[in-house]
Amino acid sequence: MNKVLAIGLNTFKESIRDKIFYSLLFFAVILILFSIVLSKLTLGDPMKIIKDFGLGSISIGGTLIAIFVGIGMVYKEMEKRTIYIILSKPLARWQFLMGKYLGLSLTILVEVAVMTVLLFALCFVYEKIVPWPLLTAIVPIYIEILVILAFALFFSAFSSPFLSGMFTLAIFIIGHFTQDLRLLAKASEDTVFKALADGAYYILPNLERLNYKTRVVHDLAIPGQELGLSFVYAVSYIAVVLITAVFIFENKDIS
């Protein structure tokens, strides 16, 4: 476990120094600040618009960091040939991969924390209270990003960064529409489309199970049991994806 922590800490320091991380963080901060402009230009409760747009910005910013930083972690080590030095030491491949995942999870946690503080500060300026209920949406957002990160690492174990990015982005998009696709397929007479939609529904993650943004912004009740089941679902999914990634990486020829 100490070796996993050491790789994780090194990956965290490496990704924090990555220019892509700061570029995407800056992009996400701009999105949150843009919510102020949007709240003044559109009709409706400005606080709801700021919260809704702010939560969406945290989700998009974190997901982009998970994809763009996550897909290159293993590839960079292979390209620089540093992976041969690392794996020549008494370190198992699974420890290397899990350390990478742990380090990137910490990096994204920092990003989500920075964005959350900024969003809380904006809300405090308008409402003079700290919007703690927003955490009910932000924690699931972080868990969802960890699911995406697991897929980024999974694809990077056997494909190029470009393909890994495309595949992971597809998982993110389809993951939010699997339920809609299935409902659409039920109304269709196309058997092939029905089979594909059913396959996507059962195999791919249903990321809408971690989407509580709208309900939190509109102060709708969210049962604790529902939240708990969503976390169990996401953690189980992450475990399966990471175990599969480890299996592929263990059998990958990197000589």
UniProtKB/TrEMBL annotation:
GO CC terms of this entry: plasma membrane
TM region positions: 20-41, 53-75, 101-126, 132-155, 162-179, 227-249
Molecular function GO labels: ABC-type transporter activity
UniProt keywords, alphabetically: Membrane, Transmembrane, Transmembrane helix
Protein name, entry field: ABC transporter permease
